[in-house]
Write a structure and sequence with these properties.
Layout (H helix, E strand, L loop, with lengths): L2 H11 L2 H13 L4 E2 H8 L3 H13 L3 E6 L2 E6 L1 H15 L3 H4 L9
Antiparallel strand pairs: 1-3, 2-3
Length: 107
């Protein structure tokens, strides 16, 4: 993942509502969740939720799939994994940091 893509993901996840939506979708797993269930569970008005989901979709963090009349949102795990790898890669790129940041025993 390049720095521009990472910055876009972090910018979108930097909003409390979008972070809550994404966290809930990650918890839901591969099946995802209907938009209506997300709105009800998180107490977000559908029109506002739609805007937030659109931002997450544009960042490549979420996909939407239609199942009949229901719109299902799912996290895109490879994008999440790439974002986490980007952080780990940067963290452990310096010899001094590598001894503390990625060693569970050092924590």
């Amino acid at each position: 993942m390049d720095i521009q893509a990472a910055a876009r993901c972090f910018a979108e996840l930097g909003h409390p509502s979008r972070l809550a939506i994404y966290q809930r979708l990650v918890q839901a797993g591969d099946e995802g969740m209907p938009v209506s269930a997300i709105a009800e569970e998180l107490g977000i008005v559908l029109s506002t939720l739609s805007h937030h989901i659109k931002q997450l979709v544009q960042a490549g963090l979420v996909e939407q799939v239609r199942d009949g009349r229901t719109l299902i949102c799912r996290p895109i795990y490879p994008q999440m994994d790439a974002l986490l790898a980007f952080l780990r890669e940067q963290c452990c790129s310096r010899p001094v940091m590598a001894t503390t940041c990625c060693d569970p025993a050092a924590a």
